[in-house]
């Protein structure tokens, strides 16, 4: 399973790349707004720091003409930018055109398997089911992911599933067990995947024992 980081912070991207486990980046307007910098400048900085890894940059418009114009402009910022489009009717139309133009896309705000099927048929490179938000309303987010993967396997779609809205390490575990192609993970959760109390205890014991024999 590929690991993307869900952030607009270039420092978090740099540190994640140094771990040797990073495969891409996703952003959204909320994350970019936290930087306090101009939207497109942040996207340019993020794409540069990603060093060739795919970066999902989201359109702001929700109209067909606006999304298409904005998508083409964002795609010119850097070669590794993919266009993140909401899973709405005009979004499907935009993705269809962008796919014909060779621009990679990520259909976001997906909440059921049929939406994901439509995204795949429109030619989306990625589709992002939001499991955390589904869990928030009492649904089982991972059930939706498993349904999507089953449908995609039946029809041999090339669209990859990005498990999004990840809240904790168990979401990452379940995403991997389901066979999801990608999980996009907040930096704090990504760092937390490394940690285990028994690892820390083991290191402390090894060091203590070493100090006993080394004087």
Keywords:
single chain, alpha/beta, TIM Barrel, eight-stranded parallel beta barrel, 11 helices, 8 strands
How would you describe the overall organization of this protein?
- It is built from eleven helices and eight strands.
- With 215 residues, it is α/β, with parallel strands linked by helices.
- It has one domain (2-214): TIM Barrel.
- Strand 5 (105-110), helix 6 (113-122) and strand 6 form a beta-alpha-beta unit.
- The radius of gyration is 19 Å and the shape is globular.
- The mean pLDDT is 96.
Sequence-ordered SSE layout with sheet pairings:
Blueprint: E1 2-6, H1 10-18, E2 24-26, H2 29-33, H3 39-50, E3 55-58, H4 64-75, E4 81-86, H5 89-100, E5 105-110, H6 113-122, E6 126-129, H7 131-136, H8 141-155, E7 160-163, H9 169-178, E8 182-185, H10 187-192, H11 197-214
Parallel strand pairs: 1-2, 1-8, 2-3, 3-4, 4-5, 5-6, 6-7, 7-8
Helix pairs in contact: 1-3, 4-5, 6-8, 8-9
Strand order of the largest sheet: 1-2-3-4-5-6-7-8
By CATH's scheme, which homologous superfamily applies? Aldolase class I
CATH top level class name: Alpha Beta
N- to C-terminal distance: 45 Å
Structural class: alpha/beta
Radius of gyration: 19 Å
What is the multimeric organization of the chains shown? single chain
Largest sheet features: 8 strands, parallel, barrel
The count of domains is 1
Query: What is the fold named in CATH at topology level?
Result: TIM Barrel
Count of runs of 4 or more consecutive helical residues = 11
> What is the typical, i.e. mean, pLDDT?
96
Strand content: 15-25%
CATH architecture identity: Alpha-Beta Barrel
Number of strands: 8
| Uncertain runs | none
Large-scale geometry: globular
Q: Give, in order, the helices and strands.
A: EHEHHEHEHEHEHHEHEHH
Helix percentage: 40-55%
């Amino acid at each position: 399973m590929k690991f993307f980081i869900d952030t607009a912070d270039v420092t978090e991207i740099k540190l994640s790349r140094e771990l040797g486990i990073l495969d891409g980046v996703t952003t959204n307007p909320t994350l970019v707004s936290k930087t306090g910098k101009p939207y497109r400048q942040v996207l340019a900085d993020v794409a540069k720091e990603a060093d060739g890894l795919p970066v999902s940059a989201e359109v702001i418009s929700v109209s067909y003409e606006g999304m298409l114009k904005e998508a083409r402009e964002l795609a010119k910022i850097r070669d590794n930018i993919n266009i993140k489009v909401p899973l709405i009717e005009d979004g499907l139309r935009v993705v269809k055109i962008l796919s014909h133009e060779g621009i990679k896309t990520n259909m976001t705000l997906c909440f059921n398997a049929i939406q994901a099927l439509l995204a795949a048929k429109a030619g989306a490179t990625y589709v992002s089911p939001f499991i955390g938000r589904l869990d928030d309303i009492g649904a089982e987010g991972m059930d939706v992911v498993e349904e999507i993967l089953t449908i995609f396997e039946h029809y041999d779609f090339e669209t990859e599933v990005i498990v999004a809205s990840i809240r904790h390490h168990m979401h990452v575990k379940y995403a991997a067990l389901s066979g999801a192609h990608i999980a996009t993970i907040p930096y704090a959760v990504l760092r937390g995947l490394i940690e285990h109390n028994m690892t820390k205890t083991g290191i402390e014991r090894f060091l203590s024992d070493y100090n006993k024999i080394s004087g």
